[in-house]
Amino acid sequence: VPTTALVILAAVAAALWAGLLAADPAGSFATFISQSKASTVPTRRPPPPSTTARPTTTTSGTTTRATTTAAPRVTPAPPVSHVTPAATAAQPTTSSITTADSHRVASAKSPTVADALGFAPLAPGKHRLAVIVPFRDGCTKHNQGSGRTANLQEFVPAMHAFLTQQNLDFRIIVVEQPQRGLFNKGLLMNIGFLAAREHFDYFVFNDVDMIPIEPSNTHGYPGRLPVHMDIAWSGNGFRTMLPNSAGGALMFTREQFEAVNGYSVSYWGWGLEDDDIFYRIKGVFGGLARLDESVGRYRSLFHPRVMGLDELPVHKQRKAELARLITLANAEDSSALVATVNANGLKQVQYSVSAASRRDLYDHIAMDFVYPAPPSDDC
């Protein structure tokens, strides 16, 4: 019986094979295995590796190098209230800039920050104001960095409406430091100036938590001296600010800011950069102008505060540096102060930008790299 079954099965198999060959004269079934190894039928290819542009800065100039790394194709969620201009929608804008050439195109594929933000050339005989706002909302124990996003969301529409009523040609430029290392407000204000100086002829460096409230504070083009604008603010009961400080809101022409070499880049953490700029102005110009108390009134915005920052070692170290600058500013011979100022500030800044974009009512510059490099934080 087993032998008979095998014979029957062999006969059935032979019949099936003959039927398949008759139905497949080209012999494709017979060569299935070889075809599967060398098929010309298009197949789905895996996603290509992502390309990430990593800006780098060199001492002799600026370059932008693109490195390719394998990564899954994941589209990140856009930032809150982010508006990408049509001109830069195809790819992120990445620029590398130094003080030696702040407006140079870093590479053929990388426009300048000014190009990305759509800054128009400044017409002869016209004035244009740039409001520079240093920003970071960070979880740090070394500066008052908490709650700043809420401040920014309140500041921008209020400031934009205020300046629009003044009938000014202006832009609000927010410069954001990455979430690593200690915050440096003076450094960010210098960077905002460098990004905008070719297209604006005067600047207001404004804290994100200070909003002008008096219509008589016109923000017009200043005279021969820089102007301290934030004279009294609501959080201080509208009492006059400290006489030897110039914080909150400070106005310069382009030439005035360059004459003092901008802000010091030494003040990491909280405070003292506003005192430093006062003595820079005093040493170079002999003093500054201040708005009248009835005009320079500002509304201060709430944010959580960290107590005891003036007792930190990093703060005490910078306080000693400020004391040396005060001594130089009070000397009859200003040459030593000028030399000190020129060695620490605008001319010493190097940085690269990870993104520059137009947003609702303001421009945003996100830093990728800054020099001097920030000290570490325990955040």
**Sequence of strands across the biggest β-sheet:** 3-13-14-5-4-6-10-8-11
The general outline is: elongated
Low-confidence stretches: 24-110
Specify the biggest β-sheet. 9 strands, mixed
- What order do the SSEs take from the amino end to the carboxyl end, as H and E? HHEEEHEHEHEEEEEHHEEHHEE
Report how far the terminal alpha carbons are from each other: 85 Å
Structural class: alpha/beta
Task: Give the percentage of residues in beta strands.
Answer: 15-25%
Kindly state the number of beta strands.
14
Radius of gyration: 31 Å
Q: Give average pLDDT, whole number.
A: 72
Helix count equals 9
Helix content: 25-40%
Structural notes for this entry:
- The structure is a single chain.
- This protein is 28% helix and 21% strand.
- The protein is of the alpha/beta class and 379 residues long.
- α7 (273-285) packs parallel to α8 (313-329).
- The radius of gyration is 31 Å and the shape is elongated.
- Residues 24-110 have low confidence and may be disordered.
What order do the helices and strands come in, and which of them pair?
Blueprint: H1 2-23, H2 32-37, E1 50-58, E2 61-69, E3 95-98, H3 113-117, E4 129-135, H4 148-165, E5 170-176, H5 185-196, E6 202-206, E7 210-212, E8 227-228, E9 232-233, E10 249-253, H6 254-259, H7 273-285, E11 289-290, E12 297-300, H8 313-329, H9 335-342, E13 350-359, E14 362-371
Parallel strand pairs: 4-5, 4-6, 5-14, 8-11, 9-12
Antiparallel strand pairs: 1-2, 3-13, 6-10, 7-12, 8-10, 13-14
Please sum up the structure shown.
With 379 residues, this protein is an alpha/beta fold. The chain is built from nine helices and 14 strands. It is 28% helix and 21% strand.
